[in-house]
Amino acid sequence: MNYLTSLGALPLLGALLIFTLPKSKSNSAKWLALATSIAVAFLGVLIALRFEIDRPGFQFVENYSWIPSFGINYSLGIDGIALVLILMSVILVPIVIVAGWHESEGGRWGSKTFYILILILETMMIGVFAATDVFLFYVFFEAMLVPVYFLIGGYGVGERAAAAVKFLLYSLFGGLLMLAAIIGIYVISGHQGGHTFDIEKLSQLTIDSTTQNFLFLGFFIAFAIKAPLWPLHTWLPDAAKSATPGTSVLLLGVLDKVGTFGMIRYCIKLFPESSKTFTPIIIVLALISILYGAFLAIGQKDIKGLIAFTSISHFGFITMGIFAMTTQGHSGATLYMVNHGFSTAALFLVAGWISKRRGSSTIADFGGLQRVTPVLAWTFFIAGLSSLALPGLSSFVSEFLVLVGTYTRYPVAAVIGTLGIVLAALYILIPVQKALHGPITPGNENLTDITRRERIAIAPVIAVIIFLGFYPKPLLDVINPASVATLTAAGFSDPAPTVGGK
Amino acid sequence: MNSANYLYLSAMLFTIGAVGVVIRRNAIVVFMCIELMLNAANLAFVTFARINGTLDGQIIAFFTMVVAACEVVVGLAIIVTIFRSRRSTSVDDASLLKR
Amino acid sequence: MSDTPVLQYSFLAPILIVLGGAVIGVLLEAFAAAKRRAVLQLTLTLGTLFIAFLSLLRIRNLTSAKAAMGSVMIDGPTILMQGTILLIAFFAVMIIGDVDNFTAQASAVPGSDEEKSALQAGRQQTEIFPLTLFAVAGMLLFPAANDLVTLFVALEVLSLPLYLMAGLSRHRRLFSQEAALKYFLLGAYASAFFLFGAAFLYGFSYSVTLSGIHAAVIGGTANNIFLLIGLTFISLGLLFKVGAVPFHAWTPDVYQGAPTPITGFMAAATKVAAFGAMLRIYYVTFAEANWNWRPILTVIAIATMLVGSIVAITQRDIKRMLAYSSIAHAGFLFTGVIALNKAGLAATLFYLLAYGFATIGAFGVITLVRDSSGEITDLNRWAGLGRRSPKIAALFSFFLFAFAGIPLTSGFIGKFAIFTAAYESGNIGVVVVGVLSSAIAAFFYIRVIVMMYFADDNGDSLTVVIPSPLTSIAIWVSGGVTLVLGVYPTPVLNAINTLATFIR
Amino acid sequence: MTSNNLVYLIALPLFSSGFLMMLGRRADKWGHIFATLISASAFGIGAFEFLQMLARPSESRAVTQKLFSWISVGTFQVDASLLLDQLSISFVLLITGVGTLIHIYSIAYMSHDLDRRRFFAFLNFFIAAMLLLVLGDSYLNLYVGWEGVGLASYLLIGFWNQKPEYATAAKKAFIANRVGDVGLSLAIMIAFATFGTVSFAGVEEKVSGASTAALTGIGLMLLLAATGKSAQFPLQSWLGDAMAGPTPVSALIHAATMVTAGVYLITRSNFIFDNAPTAQLCVVIIGAITLMFGALIGTAKDDIKKALAASTMSQIGYMILATGLGPVGYAFAIMHLLTHGFFKAGMFLGAGSVMHGMDDEVNMRKYGGLGKLMPITAITFGLGYLAIIGVPPFAGFYSKDKIIETAFNSEGIKGLFIGGAALLGALVTAFYMTRVIILTFTGAKRWDEKAHPHESPFLMWGPMAILAIGSVASGFLLSSGNRFVSWLAPVVNSHEVEHAERFQPVVVTTMALVAVLIGVAIAIAKYRSDVPRVAPTNVNIFTKIARRDLLQDDFNEAVLMRPGQALTNFLVATDERAIDGAVRTVGAVVIGSSKGIRKTQNGFVRSYALLILFGAFALLATIWVVTL
């Protein structure tokens, strides 16, 4: 059975069904979308259960010739890293649908279109993580911009069109640079035993270091825009401020992970030597992202902008973990991707709910919410704690792994990175104080607390956040072999402890 | 007489035509300049044919004349139409489409 | 004396059929009743193109045959390009068939009583159909031409009808006439250069056939300055036709002024023909002299990509914007030409097909967006189109995505193929510029989408007419082709790869 | 030895806390009782384990419980597992014991608060986190508890966060703690990089092979952590503000337990500090500075809780100082920690009782003569007072005296300095504590007519009484026959190192008692007469500085906060203008060139022809040049 294709095709099928619905039935479109996404989530869990932890290499491999004249194959396969990211994506989609049950109603077009776009996006998300053919990856990578573009521009708020355009242009720019690099490596493969896009075969190529550096940059800049890494981040706050909360969740939670995922899967795997060359610069950029994102988050007046900048800080951690080139760093970074997905989801969803109730997303307009809407306030608080990596919540494990993994190779970077811990406390607690604490700001007296639907949406997210904080082992067990494999293939090994090393 | 001189003449005619297109305003004159260029080419063809002693070039000259005649038909049609609309044959007057 | 000339009619059949159809069309103008002329002409034209295509299929397995005493070369690329031209022309004619786009009486002065009465009488300038066929015939011949005379004649045969067709718009006739005038004057100017170049090539090689010139190029004994002048001016003629910088200036004006269906036809089909001829000349004739022309063509390719993309950004008129976009695409195509390898040839052929269909579709959609005074090409007035007719807007967006080279559209595969070929030839700088200008180009395509979907309806009388069946077939088929070529281009690519070898 | 019960110590209160939070208002009626029972049962388990431990020989008293493998990546292996040894059981009993008493006290103290259930949920959460802190068998497990208590502290300080200044105080506490946490996490990183493990046992085993630099690094980072959590210089400023929390919280978290976590951390890491003399010296210095710092601040505060908070700071300074004195000091530090837990908690509860009777008035200048109206409070408070200033035979005497003695006897000139500081601290302590007693319980009444001071109910004074008993007896119980020192010996490796004693114990004790007497005398002399209801403003500069917490807040504001805010504002502007601006500039350049090139498209056919002509020349020229 073609598990991965089925997984990817299912949402597309749902989208098609919704497309055939008459216009008036926007409610059935919702339910259909929800049903589809839940089915996809179940299939995703099934795949996870059938995943064999100890088997090296890609699993659930599918390989069909697609465009033979260019050596392009439709080939899918997942390792542990891809698996957890796919799992996160398919779990987040139904949550986003439930959470934003009415999100589709304020848009330029009807609900139908909204859910079609969401489901198409889900297909693309699965595809981008599952592709093992570089060309196929690129196709998904670029094509997924289109639904997001329309989701932001069509259903967002404020300067949504401008934000959507900015998002698209940034991404296209990066994508096109990557295209040039993909072409480059493809041409080189042609000189060394036949044109191919197969990731494994491409990683065997011998490329001279100058070329490798340029190709690496082509890939890396695209991923750095996506991730986003300072100074290529300015699209993100705008997009996040304009998009609906659900879209933002998918944007920051899943799409941006493609960037960091790509760094592991493509940058390091294909260009180990250049990865080594550029590591110092990238670590510095990551550090700047961590601190810069944190400071900017502190300075934000808009709650969504704040979350966006916290994400920039978090992506700094992820990038740093990846380029620390240690198993702790890599596993930590991968786990961080998942955890960040969930904690940002929680933050964005709750922020979206309270903004909608209040009709404003300016932090100063809130105040005393803990007295008015206690459950919402607590949910936001817990999500915030996860974001500041409180031990016992999921992000802590990953953030600490990243830091430890970085320290063993780049102590100075890790030391500077830990400053992010303090700043994280500031950027979470300042808005918490302004929005949740203090006297009740006029205009907030009559806000309603969380609804049943919202409870259903947020409960699994919070549960995951807490569960993974205490017991990240299931994920780490899956991620570790993949991290080790990536690093071994690229020729890295963990620094041994100075005392009693192996 | 050195046949290269015919080539110089041809080049001169061509240049006159090419420059004439740029400096003259009247559409008809511009068009005639183009015809001059075509004929310069014809002269070159014939000269080369003469130098080489083959007939190809001379035959091409006839083709060119036919084509030029066709061009006149089409060109005059267009110029006359626009003259009727605008009451002017200045090519500078037709400059609505720009930027 | 030599043998009686053998024309080999079967090889020339597609061209001859189209020419024949055109002549019959002219006769129809003379003898058919005015009321039925439009239908008859349309049927005749589509039928002619269809039969021509069938006859082309019959000779599709020829990979090397000369016809008309070696004047016409029937090889793989010829067949591919003729096929592409016929297909594009077929769908373009469907859109042209919606004769509301054309003036009732071309000879009538705009705004005159004569024009009004012609309009009221419902007269139609059905000569547009035979003109189209003549142009198609020229286009079919152009890439197949194997000697200088044929090349020149084909160039003129394809150009002259287009000059006229550009002036036949129903609305904004002053624009249209001006477009015709500009196109004609500049086109003739460029033709003159072309001919002058041809003369010097003849003087250089004492041969009019491409293979003869090629032999002289390899021999290297003949007079080099003649080769230089010949090469330069021949190139100029071709560069003009495809709208390369700095010979591009006519493109935006003509594209904007001409009747939209004609613009679509011109943009799509002329490009195929001109690039076809260019490929043959550079790949076959001057390949060995590439160190002469490749550097400057590289510069031109870069300039064309950049100028097209950059200037398009600030356009307010959608047709004009697409004109600049077509200039940028010419630049992309150039990177395939100067790659000078088989991959480049194949990529260019694929790109031409992909771009041709997207162009037909896009201009087809533009013909549908109107108010009472005709088509609306002012971009600002496209605001809210996405709400009023979502399907048409979606289709147009899809074409724009194809132009921008977003994956899952034909444009992406084309761009990928062509950049790959360029990279393969070692011309990495061109690839980088190509990629950058693609990024710039994306901006103005997206701007149109923003206008259609995200700008607020300004409530003016913009309507989308219900497309006639033919037009809708044409645009939806174009969309379909664009999608299929993007998702599963394998059959087409295979066909191109088998056929794409020039024969000298 | 393993045990299966340890997890319940943590799980019960943790569950209870989550349960009460989830149930919400439904649990309002019985939540406080439920939480108190849970806390009591945790104490029960602790006591049970304690008895079991007593039954075993001293070298095998430690028990462990492995729960599950928590983080396992490459060589980074951390189990969620617990360790109960002589050190941790001392804390467990203190935390659950004092904790339970304070739960009981709070039932009455918080009875009028609508959110009492939530308060108890937080208290239970704190108990769980604090127990995890002392039970974790590795630095990382400790870290979880470490941040957990920080969170609990944050929540409880900000319990009445509808008042903005309370919310700010909570935030300040959390941030200051986080700065310390950076130290802890860095220490863990260095430890992992050095030893390849972060468990206490693993590190201790390999410690001998490590370089001094690494050990010093770990030590200093742990010290940083301790300064954050235990309100030591220079991270002490949050503690005063933390008094915004309800008084039981101040008693439990900010006096008895959480703030002493730093002492626990250093004692737990004795194997590191014993091998890193530089770090140890820093510990001593920080302790000495803080004990003076706190004491000086204490002299100037009119707010009863802030005065007590300053005293806490100072007393923890003593403990930290003791931990820096090497193997001999750990036991005394912990002993002082335990006795301090009793008397300071007792005094805080007493202060709460006073506030309870005085409509939450905290300004001691508006008290006066309360002894007669609140006899039980006055007596329990008084017993705590005697303990803290170190009057024999009260608890504080035993523990503090030992610290001063050890300080004096440490080597070289260092001993004289720190001993002197400790002694001076004792003097100042006696002064400010006497001041508190005088202002609050004796003299003329200075309160408003509206106030009706009254004794607190039994639920409140009961716990106070028990703590008072502790303040009286615990010192003697722990120190007689060196009981506690030998109890802790297996953990801290203090194997009776013989010191050349500079001062005989009798001498030190005498000096200390004299110092206390002087302090008390000065206080009586100064506050015997009438005390103005409003703090006089024409005081000397030192008093002013002391009232402002020795300018620590001003320092932080000037050096950290303002530059930080400026940096933030600068970066926000940079992001918009410079970075996004750069991107926009690229766009503007493209658009500008677009407009520029458009101008060539002027609509005149002749200029197009000229362009072609020009192109022709350029083409010809280039091809010609290339050909040459």
Automatic annotation (TrEMBL), chain A:
Major subcellular site: membrane
GO cellular component terms given for this protein: membrane
Instruction: Outline the extent of the NADH:ubiquinone oxidoreductase chain 4 N-terminal domain.
Output: 60-126
Q: Could you tell me the membrane topology recorded for this protein?
A: Multi-pass membrane protein
Chain segments annotated as transmembrane = 6-22, 31-51, 71-101, 113-131, 137-155, 167-188, 214-236, 278-299, 306-327, 333-354, 375-398, 410-430, 456-472
Limits of the NADH:quinone oxidoreductase/Mrp antiporter transmembrane domain: 131-420
Q: Which GO terms describe its molecular function?
A: NADH dehydrogenase (ubiquinone) activity; NADH dehydrogenase activity; ubiquinone binding
Query: Which controlled-vocabulary keywords does the entry list?
Result: Membrane, NAD, Translocase, Transmembrane, Transmembrane helix
One GO term of the biological process aspect: electron transport coupled proton transport
**Cellular location(s):** Membrane
The residues forming the signal peptide are none
Q: Note whether Secreted occurs among the keywords.
A: no
Family of this protein? Belongs to the complex I subunit 4 family.
Q: Which PANTHER family match?
A: NADH-UBIQUINONE OXIDOREDUCTASE CHAIN 4
Its recorded name reads Unannotated protein
Which organism is this entry from?
Answer: freshwater metagenome
Automatic annotation (TrEMBL), chain B:
Q: Which PANTHER family match?
A: NADH DEHYDROGENASE SUBUNIT 4L-RELATED (PTHR11434:SF21), NADH-UBIQUINONE OXIDOREDUCTASE SUBUNIT ND4L (PTHR11434)
Q: Write out the similarity annotation.
A: Belongs to the complex I subunit 4L family.
Write down any Gene Ontology CC term. Answer: NADH dehydrogenase complex
Major localization listed first in the record, in broad terms: membrane
A GO biological-process term? ATP synthesis coupled electron transport
Look up the signal peptide feature and give its range: none
A GO MF annotation of the entry reads:
oxidoreductase activity, acting on NAD(P)H
**Any idea what this protein is called?**
Unannotated protein
Q: How does it sit in the membrane?
A: Multi-pass membrane protein
**Transmembrane regions:** 6-23, 28-48, 60-83
Q: Is Transmembrane a UniProt keyword of this protein?
A: yes
What subcellular locations does the record give? Membrane
List the InterPro entries: NADH_UbQ_OxRdtase_chain4L/K, NUOK/Mnh_C1-like
Source species taxonomy: unclassified sequences, metagenomes, ecological metagenomes
User: Per UniProt, which keywords does this protein have?
Assistant: Membrane, NAD, Translocase, Transmembrane, Transmembrane helix, Transport
Q: Which HAMAP family match?
A: NDH1_NuoK (MF_01456)
Automatic annotation (TrEMBL), chain D:
- Main localization, broad class: membrane
Q: One biological-process term from Gene Ontology?
A: electron transport coupled proton transport
Alphabetical list of InterPro entries matching this protein: NADHpl_OxRdtase_5_subgr (IPR018393), ND/Mrp_TM (IPR001750), NU5C-like (IPR003945), Proton_antipo_N (IPR001516)
The record's subcellular locations are: Membrane
Boundaries of every NADH-Ubiquinone oxidoreductase (complex I) chain 5 N-terminal domain copy: 70-120
Q: Which GO terms describe its molecular function?
A: NADH dehydrogenase (ubiquinone) activity; NADH dehydrogenase activity
Record's bilayer topology term: Multi-pass membrane protein
Question: Could you list the residue ranges that cross the membrane?
Answer: 6-23, 30-51, 87-107, 119-136, 142-161, 182-203, 209-228, 249-266, 278-300, 373-395, 415-438, 458-478, 503-525, 608-627
- Any idea which UniProt keywords this protein has? Membrane, Transmembrane, Transmembrane helix
Provide a GO CC annotation, any one.
membrane
Residues in NADH:quinone oxidoreductase/Mrp antiporter transmembrane domain copies: 138-419
Q: What is this protein called?
A: Unannotated protein
